[in-house]
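Sharing a chain and its predicted structure for anyone who wants a worked example. Both blocks are below, sequence first, tokens second.
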Amino acid sequence: MIANHQDVERAAAQCGSTVEVVALPIDDSWFRDTGPIYVSDGQQRVGTSWKFNSWGGKYLPYDNDAKVAAAWLHLRGETNRSIDMVLEGGSITTNGAGTLLTTEQCLLNKNRNPYLSREQIEARLRSELGQERVVWLPHGLHLDDGTDGHVDNVAAFADEQTVVLQGCDDTAEPDHQRMAVNRRVVEDAGFIVREVPVLPFTDVDGRRVVVPYVNFYVVNGGVIVPVCGHPADDDVLALLGEWFPSREVVGLDVGEILAYGGGGIHCITQQIPAL
């Protein structure tokens, strides 16, 4: 776990002896977006650090977050490949076999890389992350104005051929149609689709926020799923258990802090591939 210097002692006490807490300057907790994106061929591992501009300059300050990927790799003594393009880890997801999913809503937003075309962005993703194909979903979530529609709120791979998609069974919600369009794109790309039908919303201090189940995090032997006390929580956890039969599926109430901040379990984590 990463924490600011003044928070390390308290974080270590709360996490217990099985978690190592390291001190690095950070402005926010969303390490999925600010941390390095690792690439590996199974024999060696390299951290790629991309430019971070706080989701299009939305939240200040972000000086520490813009440097934390390089700082983390330096702390671990790992190779850092710096890339001159704005990219957040939550804006992409891969199947580990050459296919990357992203959203047009985010990566083509002019507040990220206004001087790069779609073709240039795609070429950079393929070359720097070792991908053969990029599948562009049109939409993120309607209320995801904080990240401009990150893909990790709407799609995740269960295996090389199966995509878990966030659906929305409420026809009155804008996301009902948006998620249906995403599904058609994924099916046309040749993948098996498993859809989570319910999209939960909750109110935090009078603000309506969305808590997508698909923002889960796959760990060794398990899947940690964000829940918020919605009536569908247990049914969705059971569905995910069917789709990840070799893993234990655990729901974790993301609470008001994560929900209000616009992220879930996937957003505050970043995996390191084993060698």
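Comments welcome. The mean pLDDT is 96.
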